[in-house]
Specification:
Layout: H1 14-19, H2 25-30, H3 37-47, H4 51-58, H5 62-69, H6 77-88, H7 90-100
Helix pairs in contact: 3-5, 4-5, 4-7, 6-7
Length: about 100
Amino acid sequence: MVGPLTDDAPELDEAAFERSLRRGERQRFVDGDFRGGADVAALRAFVGLTQVQFAGALGISVRTLQGWEQGRRRPDGPALALLRIAARNPRVIRENLASAA
């Protein structure tokens, strides 16, 4: 639950707004409910990584990620678990990318 709004809450800049998710989307993603390629792309944008970075952080090929984002394939099994983790805690995905570099 979100606390009360305060006057000192920062405004979203344009980049942060572009990365934001619609109400309920993040919880759907945490639950593993990805309804199409646009959902995977939205999660990647929310995490704030390029396709190359996100694929590297998840340990998958860019081609696999593109297949998901274009709706040609659907993530399942361990890949779905990693996407759920990314939705729950995007910082962990960014840290994993940094430690792999």
